[in-house]
């Protein structure tokens, strides 16, 4: 029988870390054009894209290391909701057609992390064990 007491916080941490690293990849595409420039984006970047990239760098790093995870995840979730409604929804109703699925996934995973906390392997646990 699977001992969920041990595995739930660990799998939550894996979800947190992998999601944060994928989120950071979007920031590196904006600022470093790595692993590639954002398709269809003109450089220099518009101010709103620079702000979005800064939010992605800060919150993505905090979430990856598990430091102030709940606050960072809440902010990242809000950014992704705004990205969806500002950038994708005007292009059509269906997320599969307006290319908004990643923004929706990020939004709801970050919203979950804002409620659930960091899980295992997080600096939040050393800072204050009750926030795990």
Care to describe what's here?
The protein is mainly α and 132 residues long. The protein has one domain. The chain is built from six helices and no strands. The protein has helices at 4-31, 47-65, 69-88, 95-98, 101-116, 123-127. The longest helix has 28 residues, at 4-31. It is globular.
Strand portion: under 5%
- Provide the domain count: 1
Q: Count every beta strand, where a strand is a DSSP E run of 2 or more residues.
A: 0
The helix/strand class is mainly alpha
> Overall 3D geometry?
globular
| Biggest β-sheet strands, sense, barrel | none
How many helices? The count is 6
Distance between the termini: 24 Å
Concise description?
By secondary structure, this protein is mostly helical. Helix content is 70%, strand content 0%.
What's the layout of helices and strands?
Blueprint lengths: L3 H28 L15 H19 L3 H20 L6 H4 L2 H16 L6 H5 L5
Helix pairs in contact: 1-2, 1-5, 2-3, 3-5
What are its keywords?
single chain, 132 residues, mainly alpha, 6 helices, 70% helix
